[in-house]
Design brief:
With 606 residues, this protein is an alpha/beta fold. It contains 21 helices and 17 strands. Among the domains are: 4-108 and 258-361 and 571-580, HUPs (Rossmann fold); 393-538, Isoleucyl-tRNA Synthetase, Domain 1 (Orthogonal Bundle). The structure holds zinc ion.
Length: 606
């Protein structure tokens, strides 16, 4: 029975184009999915735009568009990035799709039936000019701790203090400049503090689904002594009109907070995929439900470390208590820095993925570089240009691609592309050694230790290059021209050595294919073989004819990389950033924890 996997990446907030951090997550998940498929697993790999919330509503208003038009414009720009970097989602959808409205409402109603929804009247800042409640990021004022001016409503960039928006001195609306007034409103809460939720989450987060460092951090949140606080706080899941989102059933003028319906978008995108595939014109809901009901199915989410709380507390609790399948794995990664400088959208630094493509840089260099630096832990990785050039030029091209280019010419010219099936004792030993690593490399992909998979593969390439240096096909070629038996023996040796090189190159291509899908497709055409799977490592090509060798990959041109890293004009940034960037990270959870408590009384972002 093939393994069945439902895999997602985090949903990007639809107020801006992709940045390099998005591409890192997509490359990680896409590589993992491709490795799974090469093992025969059945995978559904989906994503969607996270379309709701105040920042999008406000940005659309500024642009003179409806939120739907604004989001559609962002969505239209997604494919060039995804196709450009060979990210092969099976479906891309939107959290404003009909499926998501229906699913989010149905999950909410199930939670309400379980008595897990409470209402409470809270006071929060209201912009009398704009006629709307203000998320914290849209309130500015003087820091209550250090007095720094022009600080946001949730924390001070000057002294790092975290506070409630109501603590700000001289508060003003970032939208209109008006002085906000306090106004009360009824909000809906998901009762995360309910003993049933606490009991479920303490169990669910500690039974091996999470990386140990994530599980350990989450455990602290339950601890009574942690940071002088106790237990989990209820989660404010409603926002008042005007709001771009999904209406709460039975509560006119109330909408789900964007973070309630965002992860539901995983299910909505899957259902939308089933609908697209349905031959009978059905909406896909029934087929999707049947798929999700399969006990063999594993649900896997790839996310960044900044959205751990949403995926380890709110999301599994929402699913469990609405009677749905809960996730099987949450794979958390760190951030990408550039030259050890934290990427900041507000400073407009970082690498533009689109500019990377426009400059003609090979997308698979980036895939290879990122894979070579990734591991299974929640660690930041750094993009360093010198390191990038060294790894691509010395390792990828110098060690791997060169194996084919060194052997293919002789085979084409002297043997009409025909491989020898008699590879010699040393050749067979070398190839057996390469094949013996297959299980280990498959396991490294399985456990997301891509850096180790690359390192192991490059060590194998070193062995092949040592074999080439020892047998010197270029000298064999010279001697193969001699008359008589001596010439014939050298000719046979040249044929064997070059055939060993091509078989070794095929094996290394299998091991790198999850990272380099487009290159692997070119190699498959060159070798005249069907799409390579891991199991193909076991069976040698034997008597087989290969096509003419065409140049497979360039070396990095340092000048182009310089052009990429030249800072672009500062980007226009919306207040509030995006869903994935302005929330809680593991590292700063202690401070955010207080904020979380404050959030029970004060509406936060969006
Ligand atoms: Zn301050």
């Amino acid at each position: 029975m093939p393994r069945k996997l439902f895999v997602t990446t985090a949903l990007p907030y639809a107020n801006a184009a992709f940045h390099i951090g998005h591409m890192m997550e997509y490359i990680q998940a896409d590589t993992w999915v491709r490795a799974q498929r090469m093992k025969g697993s059945e995978v559904h790999f989906v994503c969607a735009d996270d379309a709701h919330g105040a920042p999008i509503m406000i940005a659309a208003d500024k642009a003179g568009l409806t939120p739907q038009q604004f989001v559609a414009g962002i969505a239209a720009g997604r494919a060039q990035y995804l196709d450009g970097f060979h990210i092969a989602f099976d479906n891309w959808h939107s959290t404003d799709g009909v499926e998501n409205h229906r699913l989010a409402q149905s999950i909410y109603l199930a939670l309400r039936d379980k008595d897990l929804i409470a209402t409470r009247t809270i006071e929060q800042f209201y912009d009398p000019q704009k006629g709307m409640f203000l998320p914290d990021r849209f309130i500015k004022g003087d820091c209550p701790k250090c007095g720094a001016s022009d600080q946001y409503g949730d924390n001070c960039e000057a002294c790092g203090a975290v506070y409630a928006a109501t603590d700000l001195k001289n508060p003003r609306s970032a939208l209109s400049g008006a002085t906000p007034v306090m106004r009360s409103s009824e909000h809906f809460f998901f009762k995360l503090s309910d003993p049933r939720c606490v009991e479920f989450l303490e169990r669910w987060t500690q039974d091996g689904k999470l990386q140990s460092e994530v599980a350990n951090k989450v455990r602290e949140w339950f601890s009574r002594d942690y940071n002088g606080l106790s237990g989990l706080a209820d989660w404010d899941i409603s926002r008042d009109a005007p709001y771009f989102g999904i209406e709460i059933p039975g509560a006119p003028g109330k909408y789900f907070y964007v973070w309630l319906d965002a992860p539901v978008g995983y299910l909505a995108s899957l259902e939308n995929l089933f609908a697209k595939r349905a031959q009978d014109g059905s909406d896909g809901a029934a087929a999707c439900a049947a798929y999700l009901a399969d006990p063999q199915l594993e649900q896997v989410h790839f996310i960044g470390k900044d959205i751990v709380t949403f995926h380890t507390l709110f999301w599994p609790a929402m699913l469990y208590f609405s009677g749905r399948k809960v996730p099987d794995h949450i794979h958390v990664h760190g951030f990408l820095t550039v030259n050890n400088d934290k990427m900041s959208k507000s400073r407009g630094t970082g690498i533009s993925p689109l500019r990377y493509l426009e400059l003609g840089l090979d997308p698979e260099w980036l895939r290879y570089y990122i894979a070579a630096k990734l591991n299974a832990r929640v660690e930041d990785i750094d993009f360093n240009p010198e390191d990038f050039i060294a790894r691509v030029n010395s390792d990828l091209v110098g060690k791997y691609i060169n194996i084919a280019s060194r052997a293919a010419g002789f085979l084409a010219k002297r043997f009409d592309g025909q491989l020898s099936s008699d590879l010699g004792v040393e050749g067979r030993l070398l190839l057996d050694g390469l094949r013996a690593q297959r299980a280990a490399i498959e396991e490294l992909y399985e456990t997301r230790e891509f850096g180790k998979a690359v390192r192991e593969t490059m060590l194998l390439a070193d062995r092949v290059n040592a074999y080439v240096d020892q047998h010197k096909p270029w000298e064999l070629a010279k001697q193969a021209g001699a008359d008589g038996e001596a010439g014939a023996a050298q000719r046979a040796a040249l044929h064997d050595v070059c055939s060993v090189c091509i078989e070794a190159f095929r094996l290394l291509t299998i091991y790198l294919k999850p990272i380099l899908p487009a290159l692997a497709a070119q190699v498959e055409a060159f070798l005249q073989v069907p799409p390579l799977q891991f199991a193909d490592a076991e069976q040698a090509l034997g008597q087989h004819r290969i096509a003419d060798y065409k140049h497979l990959m360039q070396r990095v041109d340092a000048a182009k990389l310089d052009a990429l890293l030249t800072p672009p004009a500062p980007a226009v940034v919306l207040p509030g950033g995006e869903a994935m960037a302005d929330e809680i990270s593991i590292a700063d959870f202690a401070d955010r924890r207080r904020q979380h408590q404050a959030a029970a009384a004060h509406a936060r972002c969006r």
